[in-house]
């Protein structure tokens, strides 16, 4: 694909000339038009053509590519129409299909597609594009080659100008001690790839300069489940430095962007990073490589300008996460993402309306003073209107309260069973964990799943399956204490919250529930009866637990119960 940016010049108003001079000017314009018509190829030949090869896919599939493109477009727009080139873009899409598949067959494709195009400049951005372009010196003869942001490969181009970007891990580590002085333990999360190992070697070099101030720990040989379990053990004296790595998961390998999302959701401590495309909600940020800055460098290369005055690394932070962890002493000029709007920006029209009403009220008071003879009648009318208004406001307030109550019930109740839903249960667990931390009370949860539920649906129909779910929900709600809460968590899965309950006591209650369900009989559509069994995982809260970590342990216990043959209770 290619694009050409152009801007229409402002037209001057028509200029009136005397008649003879007008004819002379018209003749000059005609001569100029003929010259342009006779030599079109020469005008077109002066056009500068450039090609940009991106390692990753479209902006919609890559946060890094979006930042890169935003910086490039903004820099091109700043330079106006002066020497604007025709820009062709090719995306290898390595983040989706992998480096090998992205480059396979690409050379013949480019050679055929641009056989009649002569480029002045070719820019490769990222590791995959740089290695591809360097491996094919026969492509695009005569074009100046630039290799941008490839430095972590340990490879140097032999036929072009390198623009390598090496993460400054000394500053990336230093910002942790500056913004979170209570941190004494920094956990570096990465993988075993050669690229990440080079970064970790650089971090080890920076670690020597922080000896005595920070203890470093490296998690590089675990999958995501192992990392998630370790996260639950971190205390407030710890922080994470997440590298642009990929970890194995049950569904395959997580890319850096998805990994950042999951780590941010699971981590009880602040998470720093070294790449601005990973600064997502829940991630602190830090001293990062700037995708926008690299995009500006590419734009300068395309325009033939200097590139050494563009910062390629800067401080970027997620404002709500900074506030959440109480971080302070941010560097001057740091970029804050997702910052809440100011009072003026959020309530601008309300403030203007309020001031307008105040002014109008002042005018009304002045008019009332002048019209003293009409005072009593006006006040009586106003009092009568006020009474009616208060009555309408009270009636409307009652209607809104009733509607809000119904909406709240709908939002927190499972429509099939009538018990709490997933959202309500998550809120209840969070509240009980906070109360347990405050008063030292134990908190336990039961993760309940109907055994072989798919077999029930397949054999007896979905109506029978729904009756089974309702029967189990009714039994759970009836068999619990008033302080306990039962919720349908999804499908045939339920969660029971038991405040002020030790794990051993919760396991006894779970066994009682299991036996009660085993005694249930569900009427099938064909006149027969269906028996049910359930598997239950039991877990109790530990220090630093969040709803997700507590539920994750209960789910792991439930998984073991199913692995051990179902129809049983297993404690975490």
From TrEMBL:
GO cellular component, one term: plasma membrane
Keyword set, alphabetical order: Coiled coil, Membrane, Transmembrane, Transmembrane helix
GO biological process: cell adhesion involved in single-species biofilm formation; negative regulation of bacterial-type flagellum-dependent cell motility
Transmembrane segments: 349-372
Pfam short name (any one): GGDEF
Domain (GGDEF) ranges: 441-572
E.C. number: 2.7.7.65
Catalyzed reactions per annotation: 2 GTP = 3',3'-c-di-GMP + 2 diphosphate
CDD domains: GGDEF
Top EC class for this record: transferase
Gene3D superfamilies assigned to the protein according to its UniProt record, in alphabetical order: 3.30.70.270
Origin: domain of life: Bacteria
GO molecular function terms noted in the UniProt entry: diguanylate cyclase activity
SUPFAM superfamilies: Nucleotide cyclase (SSF55073)
Coiled-coil annotated residue ranges, if any: 372-399
Protein's recorded name: diguanylate cyclase
Species this chain originates from: Pseudoduganella albidiflava
């Amino acid at each position: 694909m290619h694009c050409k940016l152009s801007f229409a010049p402002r037209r001057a108003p028509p200029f009136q000339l005397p008649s003879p001079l007008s004819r002379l000017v018209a003749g000059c314009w005609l001569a100029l038009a003929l010259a342009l018509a006779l030599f079109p190829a020469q005008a077109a030949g002066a056009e500068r053509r450039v090609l940009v090869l991106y390692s990753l896919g479209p902006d919609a599939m890559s946060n890094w590519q979006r930042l890169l493109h935003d910086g490039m477009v903004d820099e091109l727009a700043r330079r106006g129409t002066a020497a604007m080139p025709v820009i062709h873009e090719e995306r290898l899409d390595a983040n989706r299909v992998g480096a090998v598949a992205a480059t396979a067959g690409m050379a013949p494709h480019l050679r055929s597609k641009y056989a009649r195009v002569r480029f002045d400049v070719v820019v490769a951005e990222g590791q995959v594009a740089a290695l591809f372009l360097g491996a094919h010196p026969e492509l695009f003869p005569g074009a100046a080659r630039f290799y941008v942001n490839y430095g972590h490969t340990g490879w140097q181009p032999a036929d072009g100008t390198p623009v390598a970007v090496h993460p400054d891990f000394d500053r990336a580590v230093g910002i942790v001690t500056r913004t979170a002085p209570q941190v004494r333990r920094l956990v570096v999360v990465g993988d075993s790839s050669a690229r990440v190992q080079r970064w970790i070697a650089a971090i080890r070099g920076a670690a020597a300069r922080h000896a005595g101030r920070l203890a470093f720990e490296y998690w590089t040989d675990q999958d995501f489940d192992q990392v998630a379990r370790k996260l639950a053990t971190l205390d407030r004296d710890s922080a994470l430095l997440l590298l642009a790595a990929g970890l194995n998961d049950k569904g395959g390998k997580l890319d850096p962007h998805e990994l950042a999302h999951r780590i941010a959701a699971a981590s009880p401590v602040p998470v720093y990073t070294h790449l601005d495309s990973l600064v997502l909600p829940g991630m602190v940020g830090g001293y990062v490589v700037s995708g926008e800055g690299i995009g500006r460098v590419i734009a300068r290369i395309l325009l033939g300008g200097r590139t050494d005055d563009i910062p390629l690394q800067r401080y970027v932070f997620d404002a709500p996460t900074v506030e959440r962890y109480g971080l302070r002493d941010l560097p001057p000029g740091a970029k804050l993402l997702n910052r809440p709007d100011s009072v003026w920006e959020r309530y601008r029209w309300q403030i203007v309306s309020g001031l307008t009403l105040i002014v109008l009220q002042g005018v009304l008071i002045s008019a009332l003073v002048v019209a003293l003879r009409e005072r009593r009648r006006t006040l009586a009318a106003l009092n009568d209107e006020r009474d009616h208004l208060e009555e309408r406001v009270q009636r409307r307030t009652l209607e809104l309260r009733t509607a809000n109550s119904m909406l709240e019930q709908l939002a927190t109740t499972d429509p099939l069973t009538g018990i709490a839903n997933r959202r309500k249960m998550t809120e209840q667990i969070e509240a009980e964990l906070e109360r347990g931390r405050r008063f030292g009370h134990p908190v336990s949860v039961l993760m309940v799943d109907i055994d072989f539920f798919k077999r029930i649906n397949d054999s007896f129909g979905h109506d029978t399956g729904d009756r089974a779910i309702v029967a189990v929900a009714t039994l759970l709600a009836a068999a619990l204490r008033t302080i306990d809460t039962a919720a349908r968590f999804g499908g045939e899965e339920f969660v029971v919250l038991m405040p002020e309950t030790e794990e051993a006591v919760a396991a006894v209650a779970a066994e009682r529930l299991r036996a009660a369900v085993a005694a249930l009989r569900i009427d099938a559509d064909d006149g027969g009866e269906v028996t049910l069994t359930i598997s239950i995982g039991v877990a109790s809260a530990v220090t630093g637990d969040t709803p997700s970590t507590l539920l994750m342990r209960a789910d792991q216990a439930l998984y073991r119960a199913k692995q051990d043959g179902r129809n049983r209770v297993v404690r975490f």
